[in-house]
Write a structure and sequence with these properties.
Elements (H helix, E strand, L loop, with lengths): L2 H26 L5 H14 L7 H13 L9 H14 L5 E10 L2 E10 L2 E3 L3 H4 L3 E5 L5
Antiparallel strand pairs: 1-2, 1-4, 2-3
Helix pairs in contact: 1-3, 1-4, 2-4, 3-4
C-alpha cells in the first residue's frame, strides 16, 4: 500500500490536533501568564509522548496551519513557535529551546519568537534573527 494512503488517517488526525491546540493556545495566551503556559506545555510533553508522527511531518503540518489565511495563528511567530515546541518536544527531541527576542526597528520595538536546537537557530535563518536581542529562552529540554 502506498505510504501516503496508509498514513492519511494518522496525518489527518494530527492536523486536527494541531488545529485544536492552536485554538486552545489562542485562548490561553491572553488568559494566563507565560511561565505558567510553559509549565503546562512541559507537563503535556512528558504525559503522552508522540510516537506516531515524525518530526518532519510535524514541521510540515504546523507550517501549513500557520499559513492558512484566516486561521488564529496566521503570521504569529509566538503561537507557531509554541506549537512546534510542544509537538516536537513530544517526539523526544532533546536540547530544544523556545527563544523570544526584540529589536528596535525605525524607532519601534518589534519582537520575534523562534526555536533553537543545541543553542543554534532551528527552522530559522540566522540572518533573519541575528539583530534580535534575546529576552527569554526556555532553556534546553534535556
Amino acid at each position: 500500500m502506498n505510504r501516503k494512503i496508509k498514513d492519511a488517517p494518522r496525518i489527518i488526525w494530527f492536523c486536527l490536533r494541531v488545529f485544536m491546540a492552536a485554538l486552545l493556545l489562542s485562548a490561553l495566551l491572553p488568559a494566563i501568564k507565560f511561565p505558567r503556559l510553559l509549565k503546562i506545555i512541559h507537563y503535556r510533553q512528558t504525559a503522552a509522548p508522540e510516537k506516531r508522527i515524525d518530526s518532519q511531518d510535524i514541521i510540515r503540518i504546523v507550517n501549513f496551519v500557520a499559513r492558512l489565511k484566516y486561521f488564529v495563528i496566521r503570521n504569529n511567530c509566538l503561537k507557531k513557535s509554541l506549537l512546534l515546541y510542544y509537538f516536537l518536544g513530544k517526539t523526544g527531541l532533546k536540547n530544544l529551546e523556545l527563544v523570544i527576542g526584540v529589536k528596535k526597528n525605525t524607532g519601534r520595538l518589534s519582537g520575534h519568537s523562534w526555536l533553537a536546537l543545541d543553542s543554534r537557530p532551528f527552522l530559522e535563518d540566522w540572518d533573519s534573527i541575528k539583530e534580535f536581542q534575546i529576552i527569554y529562552s526556555s532553556g534546553a529540554r534535556k
